[in-house]
Design goal:
Layout: H1 2-17, E1 21-23, H2 25-28, H3 41-50, E2 55-62, E3 68-75, E4 82-86, H4 93-96, H5 98-104, E5 109-113, H6 129-146, E6 153-158, H7 160-171, E7 176-180, H8 186-193, E8 204-206, H9 208-211, H10 215-218, E9 226-231, H11 239-248, E10 254-259, H12 271-283
Parallel strand pairs: 1-8, 4-5, 4-6, 6-7, 7-9, 9-10
Antiparallel strand pairs: 2-3, 3-5
Keywords: Hydrolase, Signal
GO molecular function, one term: hydrolase activity
Domain Serine aminopeptidase S33: 78-201
Length: 285
Amino acid sequence: MHVLKLFSSLCLLALVTGCAIDVSPKAFIHQDKQPLQLDTSSLQKAIQRDEAQVSITTVQLTNAQGLELVGVAVSYPQAKANIVFFGGDGQTINKGSGLIHRLGQIPANILWVDYQGMGASSKADKLKVANLKSDALQVYDYAKQVFPQRLPTLVHGLSMGSLMATFIASERPVDAIVLDGALNDLPSVVTNMMPSWSRLFTTLDIHPDLANMSNVEAIKDYKGPVLFLVGENDRITPVAFVEQVYRATPSDNKALYVIPGQTHFHDMKQEATIQRYREFVETLK
């Protein structure tokens, strides 16, 4: 994971210098050097293996900055929901499009668009969190246009994507959200990723754009359905962090599922996780 590599280097620097660590959007959020060709080969292989009848459409959106955001919309037969997926830091369609097919087993229609500066999407000269949030709203609005409106539309945010999910829920009347490895707040997550020995002589100078990113705060007014997923062995957003967000939401329809034996990027590989997802979708009816 990009962030883990970053903080291993920073902590080594801190050991030598005892200096403060500057955590800016550019340092914390991965950006590829240039856009890559969209590759959905792992998705295609999974579909062929299961002999599934699936429709795959390449999505190209122009955002408010004039950047091209690239992704895929995948429609499954007899879908029971529409899922707008926002991945973790550095998680792109090229690296994990097979995840789409596992979500499709619910069954559900899936929209996944790479963040600007990641995967197949264009890169801005300067990365701003506000622009990522604006893009997220545009992607959600697009999903509402192209997917069947008779189905509930869920926003599924994994890791960093959980911050996008709660933001959208504060700006749009979403039918439900799924918070997967949810960050409680960014300063806590950053500190947690640092080795304990480095915390004694290291201070964090977190950019205001990042310091204010908190699911605990963002979800306080959300009363809609929410499913929390977290790996039992998640070291980036431990179960205790996710439980903080769970307790903060006033929703009457909320569920927390701790995935046995799994870490942060569990990729929905366990059938039991998919089944819990199905059960949650059923409650939306």
